[in-house]
Each structure stands twice: as C-alpha cells, then as structure tokens.
Amino acid sequence: MSPKTSILIDPRFQEHDPGRGHPERPDRIAVLEDLLLSWQGPPLDRIEPRLATPDEIQTAHSEDLFERIRQTDGIDHSSIDADTATSARSFEIALLAAGGLIETVDAVADGAADNAFAFVRPPGHHATDMQSMGFCLFNNVAVAAKHLRARGFERVAIVDFDLHHGNGTEAIFYDDPNVLYASLHQYPYYPGTGAAGDLGRDAGTGFTVNVPLSAGVGDAGYLLAFDQVLCPILRQFEPNFLLVSAGFDCHHRDPLGGMQVTEPGVVGMADRLLAVAREVCEGRLAAVLEGGYDLSAIRTSAEAMLIEMATAPARADVAPEHVDTEALEPLKEILRPHWKL
Ligand SMILES: [Zn+2]
To answer: Rounded to the nearest whole angstrom, what is the distance from the C-alpha of residue 163 to the centroid of ligand 1?
Structure first.
C-alpha cells in the first residue's frame, strides 16, 4: 500500500524578501507552487501552516535572538549579517515557517499522514540558539525537534543533506543525546563547521555525526555515506521520528555549490531514509526545505523526492560512477567508539 504523503506550502512564504539579487529569493517557493499546481504524481494531502508562538521559537533560541528578529517587523530592510536580511514581513513569515513545520510533524505524529514535506522559507539550519545567519532567521527543524521531544518522542533524528553544514542545528543539540544530528556537506565550505571529529559534547558525545565531503562528490559518493555510515547509525539510534533537512543546493546545477548530486541521487537518499523510518519508527518522516538556489533543480529534486515518499517502497538505481568504497574508512574509525560500523 502506498504511504499517505502530505505537503505544506503557502504563497505567504514568498513575502520574506532579503533583497534584490539575493539567491534565497521568493521564486524558490513560486516554482514549487507551480510544480504542485501541475502535479501529475500520486495524490498529496495539504497541511495548513500557522504561526509558531514566541515560546515555541524560544525552545531553540534565546529571547535576545527572538527580540532582534521581532524588532525588524514592519521595517522595509534590516541587515542581520553579511548575507542575511529581512523585509517588512520577514518576522511573521519566519514564524509561519517554523509553525508550518510544527503542523507538519504533528500531522505525521498524529497519523493523519505517513510522511510529509514542508516547503517553507526562510530556511533554518544555520540559525544557532543565539544567532540568525546564513539566510536563516529561526531554525525550523530545531523548533520541530524540540516540539516532538516535548510531545513525548524520546529520540529524534535529523538528517541534513543540504550542501552546507547545519551549524545551527548541530549547536542547538550538541550536548543532547536524545536528538541525533547527522549531516553530509561540502567541506571545507561555508560556514566552516562540520569537521568529522566534531561529535557532540558531554552526554551528547557521539550524537553529532558529520560526514564532510570534498567538492565534486556525486550520487554514488553520497549513497555510499548513507550505506556505510548514516543508515547503520540511524538503525542503532532507533529514532521515534526522522526529520530531514532537505537542501537541494547539493544538486549539480546549484550556483552556490560544488557537488554533483542528480535527481536519482536524491531519490536514493530518500529511499534509504524512508526504509530506515519504516524499520524503526513506523515510517514517521518529515522533510523540510533548507537551501537550493537553482530554480529548476529545486523543482525536479522536490518532485523526485515527493514521488518517492508517496509511492510504495522501491530502491532507485543510480548509474555506476567510480567511487572508492574505502574512502570513508577514516571517518568510520572516528565514529567507531560510539557506533558499530
Ligand atoms: Zn545550503
């Protein structure tokens, strides 16, 4: 039987405007609205977003950060850092993005959907507890993970395949053994974090898993990391809910990135995550859009991933490509004190 897949999208996500020429632009949502209007794939249910409350935001962020973004409300343009800015509506739209993801995980947690994808902006994974940065205002996936923990989900895993390391998500859960954060990312690259040896702190040691990848890695290299590192760790961690920070800037056409992932690679990653979710948490998986700056690549990647989420289990075929199957040995050695690899 095919899973029941839900989506969340809203035209208001186009109202956050970091300024002319900025790559994280409103059209990123417009192109997904267009995909869904002409959707020919399996049926998708809709989830309606709501604003996150200040208390919900402050489960992941300081009151200072919240106030700083609130003070931009109604102001045409405020600069947060060198590449992060707000427009008059950004504060409310950032609340709508975080609240939208809360509604999305609730739909899956309540069984209204088997899995779901929230197409929101602004993205979130660079926002730390103290600092909005890297196009991100509030950390949507961190707020959702905190929400799930508060709802009684004992262990939550976040897998982040955005091109960039999610330094914000890592920092928020760095000492937390109940929220596993696992990231594959171009390295070294913005924001500079995500080294293989960064494993967490105190009780959280081992529950941060970084897979730094050199520029140029493609589908086979990404899937090797899933098969040799991420999936075995997820099976051992046995999350009660799987969150996915889906950034399509790992796509080969992305203007900011140097990776070579194609649509079959996205399908391969989705397949593996869906398989783990079926094995360990009754299929409960919610994905959220992070980065991705080539409009056609966002559209085709999201389409491929949604079809995979909404159809019966299948394993995607990825064209053979030269890949050194021993390449991850040094990383596995670093992780072995914590996980059987
Ligand atoms: Zn990114």
So the answer is: 5
